[in-house]
Amino acid sequence: MSARCANRCRHAFTLIEILVATFCMAVLLAALAIPVRGALHERERASEAGEESLRLRRALDRVVVDLDGLLLPGTALTGQFVGTKNDTQDGRQDSLEFATASPTTQSGGCQRVTYEVVESENGEGYDWLRTRTLNPLSDDEDATVETTLLADIQSLELSYYDGTTWQESWDTSTSDGLPQAIAVLVSLALDEEDDESMESPSYRLVIPVLLEKAEAESQRGGEQ
Questions:
Q1: Is residue 50 part of a domain?
Q2: What pLDDT is stored for residue 24 in this prediction?
């Protein structure tokens, strides 16, 4: 019996061996945690970038649809096409007012649309708003609908091509008709964890103005 006990004692782990093994395992887990944590962080950032790209694409798609249905300005129904340059300490936050026959109009007629930049409700950035009035001649408040095109932006710059140069503002009450193209430059706000020296990611879209189509849409809207 004493021989068996002696063999068991020789095969058992000592306290020091257990402590050393535990320490080695802790070091190994700590070393593995660094790349795993980095991979999870990169995955999270990639997911956020994907969601951001989707929000941006939806907003710009909405702008393309609006401007593709531009109506000729200058009537009581359509009003004027007015693009205003607004300089702020955080960058340009331009606005634009126009009439469009966007397919989203159930009646197929005229609607007035306004783009503007306002402070976010949480006070931590700016939102790009789209306000549309389905019946511009109506006093019904329910005819006006306000939605957020894109949240958390830094700036919005709108430019107008007159056939020769790009203008920073446009007003059909003092100019000769619609511009030939409209450029949209939107800069997104940086995240809190981003380096302050980084530039805000910006996206530019140029939309041609089809004057013949605008005339046709205006005639169709007038008939309705």
A1: no
A2: 78
